[in-house]
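Reposting from the mailing list since nobody answered there.

I have sequence plus structure tokens for a pair of proteins and want to know whether others read the tokens the same way I do. The first protein:
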Amino acid sequence: MLDRSTQPRRLLAVLVVGALTVSGCSGRDANDDSHDPLADELAKDTTAADNQTPADDTDTAANEVGTVDESKYTLGHLDELTRWAAEFTNGPGRAATGDPILFGYVHDAELSPQHLPAARAAIDYINEQLGGVDGRPLELVGCDPSVPRVMTEIDPETEDEVEVEISCEVELADNDELVVVVAQTSIGNAELYDALADKKPVLVASPSNVAELTTSTTSTYLAGTLTTGGMGIWALSLELKSAVALFTDNVVGRDGFTMLEPMFVAAGVELEPVWITSATSASRVESELESAGVRDADLIILGLDEPGCAAAAEGLAALGINGTASIVISASTCLRPGARAAFTEAHGETDIPANWHFATNGFNPFEPTVESGYATISAILDGPLQPDHVGDAGVEAAVVAMLSITRALNRVDGDFSFAAVNGSLRNPGAPVPTQAGDQQCGRSRAFMPVCAGRMGVIQYAGGAWVDVATGDAAIDLSQILFPPG
């Protein structure tokens, strides 16, 4: 077996330099010591003051998504599933009434059309079943950065009404009714985070690139793109001599590969990159992989968007890599329904080849349990989206974000000031649905928004989804989160 203790050293140094470089462009100093007293009070034992706490150093078992603080309501009237959700959100467990509490939701309808319906379904469930925020309903105010938005203003010179185009960030920053903003775009939005800094607390639903891991103005509860580094940690625990990395040539793919390459170099394992686009055909993927020597590789790592997953499924099937020799580990995008349909078409009776493994945030979405939070997600999404939601990490992240901001708002007892809500977001006080392990926001100085510390691996074998590294056995990301020096 390879010596895992020395694998990540050079990777981590590279990541820190990259992280600080990106952070320096975000509009705020990543080492800014400014803070609010309430955040300090809420932090207490949940913030790793020395930023050296390993991901498994926690009082909460990694395979349980329980609540650390007790609910302030009596919930004995609820069934098990609804009671679990109400305990997590700290809501009263009844229909919400009264004046709504508004929050912003930034999404990309063209690239991810299912995210907004998932978020709305979650808010409906929260308002109808969980009691919203202290009995008041939540109201989602959506904003799509790709859609022009126009408002009417009075021209100061002519006093005529004129239409002015405004951006998402300006609209949300100027809306005093919004108490928090959830951001879920495909490639991040640094301008948004800068515009909302110190004005609106921001929860990133799931980080998709290094910029979202390094901004000093947000919080994020799911591992997201850090799972790419986790795939490398898991892969290098195997006896490998060579690997091929097939990645989409965009900011997400480039950032993911940046996590992997130094790790493999340090371990002495050859890693050959192959870059494709969303429009690359399956035959071209087959040709590129053949040229990269994929038949002789011990491991194939996939960091692709959904169209790339479909092309890879066909290309690898054409090469005969269908469940025997090489091991495949893929980012969770290849678990999306469209990608899985491509597997079925490419491999005939075999839904997904047995040697394919997939990254998750730490649990198995195909085995929904109350404890992991997936049972709640299924209850929320089965009606409007079934069967298309299972395995779609983006859709799941939208629901988790809605539940999480509800929890944060319920914990401030009606004080919706920036300091109170941001302090609550930064100190969730419990693990969150679908994410294994504890939540310690700011545990890593290199990745200040990150609160998670683990990721998972699952596999389809023998007609069922098998846990490879989930729950208590989920991959510890400390090697990435705590670079030396």
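The second protein, same order (residues first, tokens after):
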Amino acid sequence: CWALPTALLCAYGFFCSVRPSEPFLTRYLLGPHKNLSESQVFNEIYPVWTYSYLALLFPVFLATDYLRYKPVVLLQGLSLIVTWFMLLYAQGLRAIQFLEFFYGMGTATDIAYYSYIYSVVDINLYQKVTSYCRSATLVGYTVGSVSGQVLVSVAGWSLFSLNVISLTSISIAFGTAWFLPMPQKSLFFHHLSSQRLSCEMKVMDCKNGAAVQDHPDVQRAPGWEDETKVPLNGEGHSAEERKQTVDIVKVLKDLWRDFLQCYSSRTMLCWSVWWALSTCGYFQVINYAQGLWEMVLPSHSADIYNGAVEAASTLLGAVAVVVVGHIKTSWAMWGEVALALFSFLIAAAVYVMDTVRNIWVCYASYVVFRIIYMMLITIAT
């Protein structure tokens, strides 16, 4: 049944994203709780996340596939728990840098959250479950940002209290993740043989009262059938059948072959290079936006609305994604035109945010930046 793992994963994604303290992280680090300087925060602490995230991406990608997703989802929850626990109680520059490493691990392991569900549902449900999982994180992030802004601006709660709420929410997510079913296969390391899979599909189709039919109009890559219709448990198979020998060298060769095959396409290469560069730029902007806002309008001298801005950009970005999803056009024809136009608008938004020293212009530029980025990522996908 696809509903249970999807519901559990969405619950995990929601609670993991409810972090009301995150829009106020820079203010918290510069404030009396941590008493760090701007130079320390921007030049010695935030870069640790950037480089640790980069260094962990490929190892986490391989580990996610080798361990079959769930352990890495648990690792993400644990990493975020350590991050927020240290954010509450750790003191000093080195401790906060260590905290940023764990945050880098928590963000790098996002791949497990977004890929887990494809190992436990039918291929015809991919689009539906993808929308559920992404919506869960967007709703969670919005709830966290709005609640953080309300608690700070209206209720007068301290930033320490917001971090306690964040830690509690992440702990709930971590507990939820333990109930996720363990997948029996993955993309590279844990294939099911085509013969065995064919038998399983026939049995499942017979149980559903349906005849097994081939669909010649659907084009699938070789071995794609290994990624569909796999039961969550291995019942009906002996231990010898379930045991798989993993050939690391073969897996790496398969990865290299897929890499060459994918990027022999000019269109794929163009969009992939854009995706890599734009994601790098996106992370840099969201990582240092709070620092820019702090310089434009110091939080100790005025009310700030970081939470409201994050919530607005997330909600409007989600609306833009839905609109793009319903536009009937050939992105193969117009995709590169859209890529060039919207990339120019992104650059303009970032330039305005940096040069116009007005907090409301900065906020508006940030919202525009995130909306366009989400739209382009959707088109690229």
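Reply #1 (J.P.):
I read it the same way you do. The radius of gyration is 23 Å.
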